[in-house]
Structures are given as structure tokens and as C-alpha cells.
Design a protein that fits this description.
3HC_DH_C, 6-PGluconate_DH-like_C_sf, 22 helices, 3-hydroxybutyryl-CoA dehydrogenase activity, 44% helix, 3-OHacyl-CoA_DH_NAD-bd, alpha/beta
Amino acid sequence: MATPLSDTSLSPLRTIAVVGLGTMGTGIAEVLAKAGRTVLGIDISEAQAARSLAGLEASTARAVERGRLTGQERAEALARVRVSTDLRTAADADLVIEVAPESYEIKQQIFRELDGIVRPDAILATGTNALSVTRLAAESARPERVLGLHFFNPAPAMKLVEVVSSVLTAPTAVTAVTNLALDLGKEPVAVGDRPGFVADGLLFGYLNQAAAMYEARYASREDIDAAMRLGCGLPMGPLALLDLIGVDTARTVLDAMYAESHDRLHAPAPILKQLSEAGLTGRKAGRGFYTYEAPGSATVVPDALTPAAGGTGTAGRTVRSVGVAGSGTMASGIAEVFAKAGYDVVLAARSEEKAQTAKARIGKSLARSVDKGRLTAEAAAQTLERITPAGSYDSFAEVDLAVEAVAEDLEVKQQLFATLDKVCKPGAVLATTTSSLPVVACARATTRPQDVIGMHFFNPAPAMKLVEVVRTVLTAEDVHATVHEVCGTIRKHAVDCGDRAGFIVNALLFPYLNNAIKMVQEHYASLDDIDAAMKLGGGYPMGPFELLDVVGLDVSLAIEKVLHREFRDPGLAPAPLLEHLVAAGCLGRKTGRGFREYARR
């Protein structure tokens, strides 16, 4: 029977061994050394140990150049690091952090050897992000001292550390490493033992879906990445991130996740296997989803898949005037965008009063831009003058482009498109801003489906740079070219995609949000820990629950239902917790309560 850890585990962990001196191990060693710990770096390869030490010297030298360390602090930190190829060097360690390759065989061998080397009160931590901590602990002679300590790459910069407990882990060990993480200036999040934990558990499912989307040729790699950067504010697109992480690493993590969840969303996309087996593992190989200047380089170079400059060569139709249908926030924002770009805009609603109210909203938005110095008072006045409010869609008779931004209800949109078909002149382009409904269904409500296209703006339209351009099987080439030209004029980044539920952004975003809800529903982690993990570990501007409450739980549920209905994947079924909250009227910030409570204004 295992004996409990002694109370000495609560004392500061001063001497720490790091086993495995690759990129992650070297980064962890640097963090520890700069925080005053004695670091015993161990690797089976003498050359790798030397490279690690050289890497530490270079990294700390850069820190001095940037004013983040003094020369004295650098010298002291480096003096605290000793590297070796002998695992017995860890004999005096208070804590051993293992960051060897993601293989049960390798890691279990290390833990078995450490059992005969380290002190009885030493803590053993694995840095795995894919393998079962419980399984590794069970192989140890003292499983109560084994836990997971998952740093994120690059370890010196990333704040998040996931502290992973198995059912065997002693609370004293968890407390000791949590206190260490805080002392290192990190933000520890306590999680249970399941593949991917919180951050990678959510992140890799999203990355996998992006790879599958690209593999299906639904959208180009450039458009998928641009859509998620500009539509969600992410620091990198998913395919570029897969290249950075390593396609082979991603496949290993997903394999482990799928083995436990049997969720098709975690079944590695075949392209990940194909790229891995071809040696095209991303930046480290010089080629993955993209091609790089050299192995290890971050510089992308053109290859056979790089889009040709100048587009397709098809000439677009002339657009001088634009009609915007609707009176809500999205319609007002779109009208403002077009008017700022110099277009004459007719803003039509179901009544003159609603149209005037929408124009007044634009006036207030422009005034805020003037106050913030983003626009001159003269430019704001000229922009507002270009907008003509109207209480009837008959006012669209002479517009060259009509953009619909009414309620997200297919019947309502189809009725509107039937009206636009009658009032708009021949050759006018008809666009819908739907985020989840089939564009072709709107097109079929007209006698000119070739003139209909999707232009999915993001809210708030004046600030968000992305427009998803959605072609149906009936959309004419010159209509597609027209919309691309117009997007250039209004200074938006257009990405192309086909006419299927969610397009690019929502099809990748909402399954991720749904999986976060499932984590809370299953009591795996708290709202706060999940939000912190995704902001600190994934670089997301907002945590999933912050975002859900902003978007609206009713809106989120509607989109998830559309995705589930279209793709018929059990993994896309909306989480029951989301349905319960919506049924209770807890819709997010707009009602004062969603996943969190908000002060009523």
C-alpha cells in the first residue's frame, strides 16, 4: 500500500530536475532558473543537452538586450543550471518534471527508473498534454506523488500551467506544485485527468475540424486562417497553428483524445496522417500546410497552392449605389461602412420611423468616431448625408447592390428576396448577410438566382474586417467578382466559402464553444478556469463563456442546432446545459444572466 507524502512536500521546491531538453524542456528550465531554482537538466543525448544550454544562453542574452534581465541576473540564472545525460543526477531533486516524447513506453520507463533514484518525498510531474496521467502514475512505485504539470509553448512567455491530478494524487503534491507555479509568475489551473486537459482538449478539436474543412476543399488554407484571425480575433489561424505545433504532435494528441471520447470531432482528419507520414510536419520540417523558407523558419514562401495575385480575372459589375434592408444594429453598421467608403446608400426598413431611427444610430456611431479622433467632423457629416432612409423597399429600384440584414429567419428572408426580385433593376446584385441559413434558399425565392450571393459581415460591422463571401452553385462569376471588388473598396477582407451551415467561422467556433459547455456540464472544470485556460493557453481574446454571454445563448443555441441538423454529427448536438439556460430565459448579458450574472443597467 502506498504511503502518503510527508508534510515536507509543502516546503518550497528549490531543486528541480527537468528530464527531456527539447524546446519545451529548455523553456521550462529557463523559467525555473530565472525564478531562483536550481535546475538539473537531463537528456539522453549529449548533443541535445549542449544545444539546450546554448539555447538558454541565447535566450537569456536576448532578455538582457530587451531590458527584461540585467547582466548580473542572467549570470546568476545560468549558474543555477547544470545539464547531464545521467538520470541519477535527479537524486537530490525536490521535483522532477518529465517532458520526454509523447510515448507511454518512454515516459513509463523514465518513471520506473526515477522510482529507484529520487527521494521518497520528491514529486514526479509529467508534462504530457495527450497521455493519461493516471496510467503513468499507476506504473510508479509511489503513484500518490505523480501528477501532471502542463506548461505551454513557449514556456517563458505563456502564463498558463495546467496542474493535473489523477485519482491517486496526494493533495499535498498538488498544493506544492500549484504554489511553485504561482512563484514562477504563472497562472495555475486545476484540472482532472483526461486527454488534452482543458486548453488542448478544446483547441485540438477546433484544429482538427479546420484541417478537415481544408481537406474537403471547402475553403483555401489562406481563407480559413484569415477568417479565424479576423472573425474571432485569434493570434493565428488554425492551419498555421498546426504547422507551429507540429502536424505529428497534433495527430498524437487527437488520437489520444479520440481513444477516450470516441467523438468523431476528435478522430484525426486523414490529412494529418498523410502529412505526418510524408514528413511534412510543419515549420520544423520546412513544410506542412504551408511551405516555409527553411526548416524551423516562420517565414511562409509561395508554393503551388498559393493563390494567384489579382484574382480570377473576371470583371465585376459596376456598383455606385447600395441598398441596405433592415433597421437593426447589423443593418446600421453595414450602411455606415458603405457610406464611409463613398457609396450612396438607401437604408430601407418596414417603416419610415424605423429607418430614421437606424440613421440616427449611425449618426451617434459617427459622432463617437469623431470624439475618438478616427474621423473628422466634416467626413462624418458627408457620410451621414450619403444615407437616405426609406420606409419601403421600392426605394431600391435603382441600387446596384442590395444587402439584406433582417431577422435570421428563412421565411422572412425569402419573402424579402421575392420583394427585391420585383423592385430591383435587372443586373443588380442581391446579397444576404445570413450567418447560418442556406443562401441558395434565398436565391430560389427570386427569378434570378445567379445574381444572389452571401456577404456575411461580422458585428460590429464598422470595426470587424472580415466578410465571408458565400457562393451558391447558381451564383454567377461576375457577381462573385463584384462582391470581391466591393469588399476591397469598403476595406474589408473577403474570404470565399461554399453554401453550407456556419460557413467558415461559425462552423469552427460553435463546436468549440459547445465542447466548453460540456466540460462544465460534466463538472470537469469551472467556468473561470476554462475561460482563463483559453485566454492564457490559446491566446483567445475572450474565454468561451465570456463570448457565449456576449453573443447570446439563444443565438448560440440556434447556430448549434443548424450545424447539428446539417452535418448530422452526434458530437455537434447542443449541450443540454445550454438548452436549459435558454429555456430558463438566461440568455447572457442582454438579460443580465447567462453563464454568469451581470449588473443590470
